[in-house]
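Reagents: none. Just compute today. adenylate kinase.
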Amino acid sequence: MAAMIRLFRSSSSSIALRSFSTAAVSETLKSQSYPHNPLPTNIEPKGKTVQWVFLGCPGVGKGTYASRLSTLLGVPHIATGDLVREELNSSGALSKQLAEIVNQGKLVSDEIILNLLSKRLESGEAKGEAGFILDGFPRTVRQAEILTEVTDIDLVVNLKLPEKVLVEKCLGRRICNECGKNFNVASIDVAGENGAPRISMAPLNPPSQCISKLITRADDTEDIVKERLRIYYDKSQPVEDFYRNQGKLLEFDLPGGIPESWPKLLEVLNLDEQEYKLSAAA
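Predicted 3D structure written out:
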């Protein structure tokens, strides 16, 4: 864990650090109780370093919305899923072990995730990065506890979709094996249940030059997708409770695809897209 602390320690960053040791964390967590607070209100990212986490089931779109906010706010989007895929495509000693884990739909161990994240943060620190939007981390309470002892998380956005929609989205994912861009060929129209509204999502089709080069991820089969969701429900949902009890969790039910969801997400985050674009161009 010392590596993670060192990597967060940057004079150019406004990330606040606290002293850390494994024993100290253990004792602190045993005695600590977080009062139940309402959901975050009056979110004001303007004028301060953003230190956010995006949670949600596999396939919900964490990467899409975290990436868009990263571009808008000018902070790095760090997706542990991308870190794993980069390692899988490398010739490193870890790639074969990761391939077996991912293809079976299992969760990658904390040790491996922390190792990959540490290397990414080290690279970012060298470039003078300050602030972050984490996507896919933390995914266990243990990881959340470690992160809490290292830095202060401002906000945790929990994106939500019904399971039926999540499965359809995952089965529709495609990647261009030439340019590396992600697309989705699924056309989703799910009737509302138990008072919930109907959810419609148009496909995100590739341009003509990518159509013949589309591939499906090896782990995007129905059985593996459902297994990933089962593991998430069993082991990762307690992370939501961890942040909910700190008053940092913002739950956001996606009303549809990007055209419907993006403006509503900006609204609840108190963000004005045009204002940020004008500021960045000035």
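The longest helix spans residues 222-244.
Action item: order primers for follow-up constructs.
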